[in-house]
Amino acid sequence: MVLVERRIGLLFAFFLCLILLAGMRSLQLGTLQGGKLARAATSQQVTEPIVPAHRGTIVDRHGTELAVSQAADDVTATPYLVTDAAKAATQLAPLLGVDENVVLKQLSRRDTGFVYLGHHVPGDAADKIRALKIPGIDFTPGQRRTYPREFLASQVLGGVNMAGKGYAGVEYSLDSKLHGTDGQRRIVRDGVGEDVQVRDIKRAQPGDEVELSLDANIQDDVESVLGGIGKTYRPKGATAIVTNPKTGEILALANWPQINANDPSAAPDYARQNRAVGITYEPGSTFKAITVAGALEDHKVTPDTSFNLPPQIVVADRTIKNAEDRGWATMTTSDILAQSDNVGAITIGQLLGKQRFDYYVRKFGFGKLTGTDLPGEEQGIVPQLKNYSGSSMGNLPIGQGEAVTPMQIAQFYGAIANGGVLRTPHLVRRIDGRMQAEPAARRIMSASTAASLRTMLEGVLAPGGTASEVKPIPGYTLAGKTGTANKIDPVTHEYSQSAYVASFVGFAPARNPKLLISIMVDEPKGGIYGGQVAAPAFGKIASFALQYQKIPPSK
Fold first, then answer.
1. Within 10 Å of residue 62's Cβ, how many Cβ atoms?
2. pLDDT of 353-366, one tens digit each?
3. 201 — pLDDT class (breaks 50, 70, 90)
4. Rg of the chain on CA atoms, in Å
5. Buried b (16+ CB within 10 A) or exposed e, 460-484
6. Are 74 and 95 in contact, with CB atoms under 8 Å apart?
7. Which has the closest alpha carbon to 401: 339, 341, 358, 343?
8. Which residues are identified as catalytic?
9. DSSP state of 287
């Protein structure tokens, strides 16, 4: 009997100890660590992911979509929750567009509780993955930026990185407008990971739509013409700009080689650059119009001023002649510009004088940024007057020794076309439906000087001019200027005898211009002259654009 009572006492003491231990543990969990454990439990059941704002669409002036955003998810996994990794990999691989072995390797990892299976998976594929209801698979909402026209204006549009930030082009310069404001969502899940409550804490605000001044049809034609140059002359690259000189609006801006905006990494760095603003080059003979414009403004010459010109001219230690030898010649200012005579242009530059030449070069917008709304603009190089050598006025007036961007040349010739009033070329037309203010205009030459230049530049495309081989456009007069410039050899630092820049810039109709077209071809092969390589492209673009825009023929 005593033994039984002793055993009962020990059992009672044992159970009493268990109850005390349970009570102490309950006190520890419920009171001392309650807050911490509650937060841990909540963190496992409640998530508050960021909801990306819908990125604004980029369209051309007629509403053609150039850049759009589509729903896309990042697909992730918690490997230890995936019960059948092999089966899951077989199901997921084709929907993710990833090799099955790669997916299996990720799902089989035990060194981490989180792995990425796919970034920016399109919405339809993500929905199919959701429908599989594979344990341990999760989704983070996002977007996928796509470019419906693929190659069209790709260097202008730029791109968006994995974080949804613009890194180049319009996507970069207007990122704050396009991005919008991200939202936040609260998701409560049950013990098996199913959503039981989804609520938006902060609603995402979509980004603004951006309308560009580009015309997709003109842009497409320009890119096709540049493609023809690429096929014929196999250059390092080519760039073309089309503007309305009356407003400064950019109607087309193309670079060759083309790149696919949906796969920019496949293209070399040079091709991805918007060279209309991002490179500088010696302009060659297109700069002669700057020399002549300054001399007209200072009344040093008129279009009919006659010069008796020698075959070559000596300036300090340099002897300069023309690309093609000639004897003594009597030429007017108009002839000098039409035939791109080096000796004649230098002679006019000497009449103007170095101080006034430098003044007009800067007044006409060279050596500084144009202020265009395209990112990555270079300002070019114009030597300081104090650094002129004795021979500087033997090379600067003919476009050697200074560096310009294609956009600066387009801007200056646009002023000639616009009666002497310079308008900064610009691309952004509307943001969120609101018309953007045009950049301020400024007069850089008199209306009479601009009119004289327009008439003289018609001679460039006339018989005997340097662009006479441009096919005429019935009913329209054309005007412009050729340029051919040696590049500097990076090894010898001397002018190369094999690498050239061929260019042409012109407008139509010549007397009342509605289109300004500038073309620069970098290192063409099989032809080097602007009149041969670039000028015919001007004619093709002008022929299409004049008819497409229904611009009336010249009177």
1. 10
2. 999 999 999 999 99
3. confident
4. 34
5. bbeeebbbeebeebeebbbbbbbbb
6. no
7. 358
8. 285
9. G
